[in-house]
Amino acid sequence: MQEGPIGVFDSGYGGLTILRELVDRMPQYDYLYLGDNARAPYGNRSFSTVYRYTLEAVEWFFRQGCPLVILACNTASAKALRTIQQNDLDRIEPGNRVLGVIRPTTEIIGNISRTGSIGILGTTGTINSNSYGIEISKFFPKVRVYQQDCPMWVPLVENREYESPGADYFIRECLEKLFTQGPDIDTVLLACTHYPLLVNKIRRFLPAEVEVVTQGPIIAESLQKYLLRHASMSSRIHQNSGRRFFTTDSTADFDAHASIFFGKGLRSELAVIEDH
Ligand code: DGL
Q: Fewer CB within 10 Å of terminal CB in the chain, N or C?
């Protein structure tokens, strides 16, 4: 049985908004972050491409000794997680686990809404997969789910345009499309781990009574409960408060941008992922 850090994965920087909350809530654990910046964004890629990239990343984490990997990316969770859990895990490393961000979010999101109308904002891949519609209907069958893809939002964030006046146009456009579908939405879920960087602008364009939900705190609470329930897994995770950051692209670029997402400075290392 492998022992080591918790692996946290995203196509790029977005998963750092999740890692930040994990570290805040459970600082004792070792964490290893991988951003596949060389191949980001994933949001508009096909199922088979996102699946292949995500599987390659999971195998990379296992080679680093991670017994548990969190896909801190909605697109990868929507398009690759189930196949990896059902078809690949037994073959590669049966004792290890890979978890995503969609299930823990859909388990609780219906409790937040008073009107029973929830808006989901995500990448084109996440929205077209209808993963949120399907999962929310299992836990909250009466809740109405409205979904809108925001294909420009990840590029705005990756290019550090998230506070620029130019970003306002694309943010308003998607919010208007969402509220045209569901005028009584009172809860808007940011179902992409990049979007917390846009949260101030999003809040500015919405009425004060609309709740804007980010996933970091939800995922951190859910992982903490998971590790309490699965003592055999938590005992395999090193507890030296270690943090290592890897990127598949330029480490200098990663270090310059990642601090905005993570909330503090960091030094990354280059990851070489084996192509299938
Ligand atoms: N951060 C990823 C997510 O949560 C998407 C970014 C991308 O398009 O690569 O969906």
A: C
Secondary structure E strands in the chain: 6-10, 31-35, 68-71, 97-99, 117-122, 144-149, 187-190, 211-213, 243-247, 268-270
Our answer on whether the CB atom of 247 is closer than 6 Å to any ligand 1 atom is no
Atom of ligand 1 nearest to the CA of 122: 10
Q: Residue 78: which CATH number?
A: 3.40.50.1860
Is the beta carbon of 73 within 6 A of some atom in ligand 1? yes
Same domain for 149 and 173, yes or no, is: yes
- 179 lies in the same domain as 232: no
In short, whether 41's Cβ falls inside 6 Å of ligand 1 is yes
**List of residues 6+ apart from 3 with CB closer than 8 A:** 65, 67, 236, 237, 238
- State which residues form the domain around 229: 6-100+217-270
The number of distinct structural domains making up the chain is 2
Do 93 and 108 belong to one domain? no
The alpha carbon of 153 and the centre of ligand 1 are apart by a number of angstroms equal to 10
Task: Say how many Å lie between the CA of residue 249 and the centre of ligand 1.
Answer: 16
Which ligand 1 atom is nearest residue 194's CA?
Answer: 1
At CA 49, angle to CA 45 and CA 55, rounded to 5? 130
Tens-digit pLDDT profile for residues 167-220: 999 999 999 999 999 999 999 999 999 999 999 999 999 999 999 999 999 999
**Catalytic (active-site) positions:** 73, 192
Whether the pLDDT of residue 16 is over 80: the answer is yes
Q: Per-residue pLDDT for 160 more than 90?
A: no
Task: State the distance from the centre of ligand 1 to the C-alpha of 38, rounded, in angstroms.
Answer: 13
